[in-house]
Amino acid sequence: MNKKTKKAIKQTTTLVVALxxxxxxxxxxxxxxxxxxxxxxxxxxxxNYKPLxxxxxxxxxxxxxxxxxxAIMMQESGGRGSDPMQASESYCGxxxxxxxxxxxxxxxxYYFSETLETAGYDIELAxxxxxxxxxxxxxxxxxxxxxxxxxxxxxxxEMYQNAPDQSIYSCLRKEAKQxxxxxxxxxxxxxxxQYVPDATEQ
Length: 202
Known about the structure:
Low-confidence stretches: 26-30
Number of strands: 0
Number of domains: 1
Structural class: mainly alpha
CATH class: Mainly Alpha
Radius of gyration: 25 Å
Shape: globular
């Protein structure tokens, strides 16, 4: 075998090895992408309300929680309808009394600021209370506990079982039906926080 042939074989071998390394790298990257699903995104309809959310978050001293408020709106309505923060019940005690998106946002941000302060800035307790009502905060504090999934289920079950008319509630999830915990959404915290970037650092 002459030098020219040896050189050609060496170059070919080097090229093949390099190609294998590249293919392995691409395969690893693809697997990494598959193993890390993308975070659910905030819809454009919700993003359009960000300036208003920022305005009232500043007014009610919760400016650092804009991402959480956007996530709450995303979970509540996806930015649709005349009450995108679903804030009517906290405003007038019944569903559907708010017909103006800006009033909905103002009330929703105000109510969140109230739950946050009452919850001692326990963000998970405040978020769940946006769904359950501020009575949940008192319930947790009376038991000298913090927010947990178990206490959310327990509260929902008690409220549902003691409701004068259970027919006004529908179990949003099959797990809620299993626990007989059909008051509110027992997984509201997880549902909201999936939309918050770097939620674990909040």
